[in-house]
Design a protein that fits this description.
This protein is mostly helical and 196 residues long. The protein has a single domain, classed as Farnesyl Diphosphate Synthase (Orthogonal Bundle), CATH 1.10.600.10. The chain contains ten helices and no strands. Helix 3 packs parallel to helix 9 and helix 9 crosses helix 10. The two termini are 34 Å apart.
Length: 196
C-alpha cells in the first residue's frame, strides 16, 4: 500500500482485479463478447493501466493504450488456454460465437477438433490482432520509451498468437509456447531496436 500513491494506483484498480478474480469463482461461461470484454477489462485491462503507471506513464492517452493492450494479452491467453480451461470445465469463448460457428460446448469440453472450431479460433485471433493494432496506435510517442516493458509483452504475446495460428489452433490437447530464447530475442529487439 505505501506504493499506491507514488504510482497513482487507486482503490478502484485493486477492487476491479479482485472482482475479476471473483468472476472466475462464480462463472465458467460468457454469453457474448461484451460479457467477456468486461471480464478482460477487470483481470487485464485494469492491470495494464496500473502497469503503465508503474512503468512511468506521463501522457493521459497511455491509459487507453495500456487498457487495450491488457485486453489483447488476455484474449491471447484465452486462445492459448482453450484446452486447459476445458479440463476445468471452463469455456471463455462467448456462447453467442460458439453458436455463430456451430461449435458445441461439449466438443470443446471433450477437446474435439473440427473445421468449425478452427474457424471460430481464427475469428478470435483476428479480434486479438485488431486489439494489438488499436493499442499500439494509441501509445503516444512521448511514453514509448517508458512503456517498453509492455511493448516487450506485446511482442512476445503477438508472436505466440502467430505460432498458434501457424499450428492451426491445435490448442485443445497442448499448450503452445515460445522458447525462452525466442522470448529473450523478442524482448531484446524491443529494448535495443525499439521494434516489435
Amino acid at each position: 500500500m505505501p506504493h499506491t500513491a507514488i504510482y497513482n494506483i487507486e482503490l478502484r484498480h485493486l477492487q476491479a482485479v479482485i472482482e475479476g478474480c471473483q468472476m472466475d469463482l462464480n462463472q465458467t461461461r460468457y454469453l457474448d463478447y461484451p460479457g467477456l470484454q468486461r471480464y478482460c477489462h477487470l483481470v487485464a485491462g485494469v492491470v495494464g493501466e496500473v502497469a503503465a503507471h508503474i512503468f512511468g506513464q506521463t501522457q493521459e492517452q497511455t491509459t487507453a493504450y495500456a487498457h487495450k493492450l491488457g485486453q489483447a494479452l488476455q484474449l491471447t491467453n484465452i486462445i492459448r488456454d482453450v484446452g486447459e480451461d476445458a479440463l476445468r470445465g471452463r469455456i471463455y469463448l462467448p456462447v453467442s460465437e460458439l453458436q455463430q460457428f456451430d461449435v458445441k460446448a461439449h466438443e470443446i469440453l471433450k477437446r474435439t477438433y473440427s473445421e468449425r472450431f478452427t474457424d471460430l479460433m481464427q475469428f478470435q485471433a483476428q479480434r486479438a490482432h485488431q486489439l494489438y493494432d488499436e493499442a499500439l496506435a494509441l501509445l503516444p510517442d512521448a511514453d514509448r520509451h517508458a512503456q517498453k516493458p509492455g511493448l516487450m509483452m506485446a511482442s512476445i504475446y503477438r508472436a505466440l498468437l502467430g505460432e498458434i495460428e501457424r499450428d492451426n489452433f491445435q490448442v485443445l490437447h497442448q499448450r503452445i509456447s515460445l522458447t525462452p530464447l525466442r522470448k529473450l530475442w523478442l524482448a531484446w529487439k524491443v529494448q535495443a531496436l525499439g521494434r516489435l
